[in-house]
Design brief:
This protein is of the alpha+beta class and 248 residues long. Helices cover 28% and strands 26% of the residues. The strands form 2 sheets. It has a 7-stranded antiparallel β-sheet with strand order 7-6-2-3-10-9-8, with no helix packed on it. Helix 1 crosses helix 4 and helix 6 runs parallel beside helix 8.
Length: 248
């Protein structure tokens, strides 16, 4: 989800300005309807919706004009794929509280990827996490909530802070156990807060310590989402397009 989609119109589809185009994506359990914006007489632009599973869906381009019936202009298939970011988010979600898995992730820290790669990883994994169907009982600290906070252990928050993943850290802070993870020491005696300070991640340290810290800028935060029962409306501010998602 949240990728830019461009639609090229054929000569016969290039119509007057008062015609509105939109796309309808029909999956196995949810349906999305997105508005579009006209780049020029022959091109439209919109945002792909965040889908609930990896599957091929039918997408229909519709045209609407006041006083006229809705016209189906074209049909095509569209595939939501399971990419590396989705795999990484699923792995991290399932290894919350798993010490062997979390200690293994520390090998990633040895390579210290370039800042541009870290930013790309942060954006993609945080976005994938937003679209995961996390269980209702999911917790940043793992399933075993009987563990005392004084027991030294690695947490997902240590992982995110160690790599400097600002957006993923913000996402984890909003989840159950996110704030509690800030005071947990690992086997070296480091908390996520002290790790951020030690590594010079000033923005990350502010995010963890300031009560009124704002969400980091990202592609996903350019949108505003409103939930109403089985429906969800999302406005992507940069492109000024709307996405309506409903359970089928």
């Amino acid at each position: 989800g949240d990728s830019v989609i461009t639609v090229q119109l054929t000569e016969e589809d290039k119509v007057e300005d008062d015609v509105v185009f939109y796309l309808v994506f029909t999956g196995s359990t949810v349906q999305h309807c997105t508005s579009t914006r006209k780049i020029n007489p022959g091109s439209l632009e919109t945002i792909s919706p965040g889908h609930d599973c990896c599957e091929t869906v039918k997408v229909v381009l519709c045209a609407s004009k006041e006083g006229h019936p809705i016209l189906v202009v074209a049909e095509e298939s569209f595939q939501f794929i399971q990419d590396e970011a989705y795999d990484a988010a699923q792995f991290l979600a399932t290894c919350a509280g798993n010490q062997q898995a979390l200690i293994f992730t520390r090998f990633l820290d040895r390579s210290r990827p370039p800042a541009a790669d870290v930013d790309f990883l942060d954006e993609k994994v945080a976005l994938a996490f937003r679209h995961l169907k996390l269980p209702a009982e999911w917790n940043v600290l793992g399933a075993d909530q009987s563990l005392n906070e004084n027991i030294p252990r690695e947490t997902l928050m240590h992982f995110a802070v160690r790599l400097g993943l600002l957006r993923l850290t913000w996402f984890l802070l909003q989840q159950p156990g996110g704030r509690g993870a800030l005071s947990i020491h690992n086997n070296e005696g480091a908390t996520p807060v002290s790790l951020a300070l030690e590594r010079g991640y000033q923005k990350l340290h502010q995010l963890l310590t300031e009560e009124e810290a704002r969400e980091p800028d990202s592609w996903s935060t350019l949108s505003h989402t409103v939930h109403a029962g089985e429906y969800c409306v999302k406005h992507h501010r940069r492109l000024d397009v709307y996405l309506l998602t409903a359970e089928t």
